[in-house]
Design goal:
Blueprint: E1 3-7, H1 14-25, E2 28-31, H2 32-40, H3 44-67, E3 73-76, H4 87-94, E4 96-101, H5 104-113, H6 126-144, E5 149-152, H7 159-174
Parallel strand pairs: 1-3, 1-4, 2-3, 4-5
Helix pairs in contact: 1-7, 2-3, 5-6
This protein binds shikimate-3-phosphate (S3P).
Length: 176
Amino acid sequence: MQRIFLIGYMGAGKTTLGKALAQTMNLQFIDLDDFITGRHHKTIKDIFAEVGEDGFRQIERNALHEVSEFEDVIISLGGGTPCFFDNMDVVNAAGKSVYLKPSEDVLLKRLIKGKHKRPLLADKSDDEILQFIRQQLAWREPFYLKASLTFNASHLENKADIHINAEKLASQLLDM
Ligand code: S3P
């Protein structure tokens, strides 16, 4: 039985690489944000607006406990999931975890491009996003580094790169 968690900051490539990895390893792919959206019939943005970040973190924690029982899955977590409650202990007790870590430049480019989808970034200028990323990573990275494996996720810009990285990560996971 395989249960693999992908963690990392927003824009790290958790969904992109997760889908490719699931195909390579012949496992199901679950995105925790999508799971929450499906359960609550609301977008993450609407949940934040209605119950605030604290309320969202409770919902996210409950969802994590649920998906941690699924079998033969790749589960991509939200960028904040590992950093609240004892979530990283839950993750590491349930399966293998991978910290997807792109360079700061790559992360910034990806986040500027997709900022409107993310409630924590939507109102910020490009410069504010950079400061925000630096500040957040300073406190979040110690949680991410509790993962069983750290994987370079800087090169996921086209199909070929995604495929190569999925194969590489799959072989590292199978060796663990
Ligand atoms: C968050 C990341 C988002 C989502 C929510 C909060 C965060 O997920 O869970 O907007 O705190 O970093 P992604 O990392 O999948 O964008």
